[in-house]
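Encoded backbone
================
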Amino acid sequence: MKNLQTLISSEKKYMFNILDSIKVEIDGVKNPYDIPINDLFTMAARINKKRSFLFVSKVLGKHLPIEPEKALAIAALLGVRYLESVDGLEFKKRKDFLSLLFDGGSYDSLPFIPEKINPLIIGFAETATALGHGFFDCFQRAEYFHTTREDINGQAPVITFEEEHSHATSHRCYIPIEMISHKREIILIDDELTTGKTALNIIKSIHAAFPRQVYTVVSILDWRSEEDQQRFLRLEQDLGIKINVVSLIAGKVNIHSINEIESLTKITGTSNQKASIEVVQLDSFFTASTYVSKDQLLGVPFIKETGRFGLSSSENVAVQGKITSAGHFLRQKREGKRTLCIGTGEFMYLPMKLAAEMGSEVYYQSTTRSPIHIQNVDGYGARFGVTFPNPEDEKITHFVYNIPPSHYDELFVFMEREVSYIQLQPMLEELKKLGFQTIKIVFCSGY
């Protein structure tokens, strides 16, 4: 098999070969911070008729394990880019965040965007919930919430919109009406703009009920075509608004399908039935909300600190203090030398931040709903994988990718809500195949 992903041509043109089946050409690349493009993502083939390819981020902690500080650094760089491109303010610490992204180190999460800039920030579920919250961390004065696929019992969402290409298309927003009933700028956070339709859908939904003058779309990658960009301009004209678009990398993507891809393969090998299983409770560190879902965990509340139901910057200061305390507690629970922390679904930000507090040799990623073709080939974006029903809602399938068997000796799985041991069993059986010596299930909200 040919090298899966090869950089060719000039500095502004790239070509990726995905499993000898899909060719992806990227040209006209704009890269204001000169970030090596191969340090931001690799590529994989999705099992999705609506979109056959996937940019697998190396900085989000979704499909690939990363040092959690990298995700915080990329969110901070988006904050810098926003300041410099939308507000015209120069930020001299840009180099510090670039160094953190490439060389590692600790991130203090201190807000640096001044109080005079006071937006409402919205992160897109599920992939950009942590990115959105990390971006929110940069503001001295702002409000934040993330969209959700959850159906909240007894509550009607303030706004809804659709993400057509996704496996879970409906987004819901459950927030106090006063959080969005104003004229301030709204900033939408996503990891990638392919067509930008999701951003336009939410702008239309918001503007129909809560009109304003300025919207900003912030994303790590912007691959919109000329036609896609024209859609943004037409919506600006139709609604009489301004839509800013901010990204770290922008370019044009062309896709060429070549061959059919082999069927999904799964991890094979002997399950480590001797792995010790432990439950860790963090409910004393976090605050139960009044919200519960309509799924099988009807009696277990979500927690307030995720941002799903809205946070202000002043409340976020308290959240950071709780994370520090809970992280210190978890550090004492560590037994292994090389530890992996896994968030679940939309529950990404708190596990990522907690992982950053747990010491050295700690890596982070999350489960995902996205089915991807798995091939153990160097350079490919999904070399290993396991799948299991979501313990919080068995109707939803979760996947975890790129964990080589026996690479980590210890695993912390973070779940927002407590579930029974029976509900955990399918997930545990799959995770045992990855060779962990100890598996700790961390619950942040209990019965």
Notes: Confidence is low (pLDDT under 50) at residues 1-10. The first helix runs from residue 68 to 86.
